[in-house]
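TICKET: design request
STATUS: open
ATTACHED STRUCTURE:
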């Protein structure tokens, strides 16, 4: 046992010295809260991911009415009022933010991780701040099953070169081997330094057949990526997994298509994304009506795979 431990430590030390594009997951606040972060991804520049937003929470005040905001989760703009994200972003502390959505802010166009701002609704040349009027969580959410949510903004976003919507996938299919994700990640393996800006990285997706084979169950509501070297979904929780060349009728020429929402991972299986196309009807139907709290006792939606949360071992660093 001692010899095995020495070997593991040696491997980790060697890995830490190499260029590391893996993603680290931590567990916070509740049994199911996961927060993947990109390690040493490439910094984004204005216009790279105009559909990406940061859902921020207040962490302190510095006087003169200014508040320090830090990233809680990522999200994707799917219309002027709607942001698609992960349900688990709001389940901490007995669904506190779900019950009090106005305490959060959605920031579009600003690539910084931590920002000082009064928190008022604002639109300028580069950045747009919005409050959240409502959060809609899938009624059969039980992490990681049905890990999807929509936030409704208090005012519409103005689409510009660095703030824009993304089309959502409509067909359940396999996606090109290499796709892209973005998030507010760490800059080193030990996780001691948070990137000041959004990071972008590419990940390898697995076919639905291979994903189902590895999990030994129906995985039609998930997209999996390779985690053979102990990484997880490459992006912030709730953030986008986007692909090109999908042959999906919703894909536009030379534009990314939103195919997944970052969810979590299993240590010895795969990283998990919520498959957007599996929820196309639910997304279209929820234009703003407030949903009830999800029922943890109901594990299975009519068209969605069931996955026992105990089967998902979240890696802690």
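STATUS: resolved
RESOLUTION: sequence designed for all positions
ATTACHED SEQUENCE:
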């Amino acid at each position: 046992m001692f010899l095995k431990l020495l070997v593991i430590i040696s491997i980790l030390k060697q890995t830490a010295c190499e260029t590391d594009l893996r993603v680290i997951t931590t567990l916070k606040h509740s049994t199911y809260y996961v927060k993947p972060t990109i390690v040493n991804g490439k910094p984004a520049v204005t216009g790279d991911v105009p559909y990406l937003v940061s859902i921020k929470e207040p962490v302190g005040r510095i006087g003169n009415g200014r508040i320090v905001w830090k990233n809680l989760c990522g999200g994707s703009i799917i219309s002027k009022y709607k942001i698609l994200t992960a349900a688990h972003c709001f389940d901490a502390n007995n669904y506190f933010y779900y019950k009090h959505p106005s305490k959060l802010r959605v920031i579009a166009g600003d690539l910084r991780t931590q920002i000082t701002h009064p928190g008022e609704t604002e639109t300028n040349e580069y950045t747009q701040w919005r409050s959240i009027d409502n959060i809609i969580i899938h009624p059969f959410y039980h992490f990681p099953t049905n890990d999807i949510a929509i936030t409704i903004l208090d005012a519409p976003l103005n689409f510009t070169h660095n703030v824009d919507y993304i089309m959502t996938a409509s067909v359940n299919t396999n996606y090109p081997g290499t796709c892209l994700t973005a998030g507010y990640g760490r800059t080193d393996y030990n996780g001691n330094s948070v990137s000041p800006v959004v990071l972008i990285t590419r990940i390898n997706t697995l076919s639905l057949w291979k994903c189902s084979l590895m999990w030994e169950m129906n995985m039609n509501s998930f997209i999996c990526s390779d985690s053979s070297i102990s990484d997880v979904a490459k992006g912030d929780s709730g953030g986008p997994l986007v692909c090109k060349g999908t042959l999906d009728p919703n894909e536009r020429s030379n534009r990314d298509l939103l195919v997944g929402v970052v969810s979590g991972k299993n240590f010895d299986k795969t990283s998990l994304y919520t498959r957007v196309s599996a929820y196309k009807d639910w997304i279209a139907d929820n234009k703003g009506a407030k949903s009830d709290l999800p029922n943890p006792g109901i594990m299975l939606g009519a068209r969605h795979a069931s996955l026992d949360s105990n089967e998902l071992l979240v890696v802690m660093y």
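CLOSING REMARK: The two ends are 21 Å apart (CA to CA). The longest strand covers residues 52-63.
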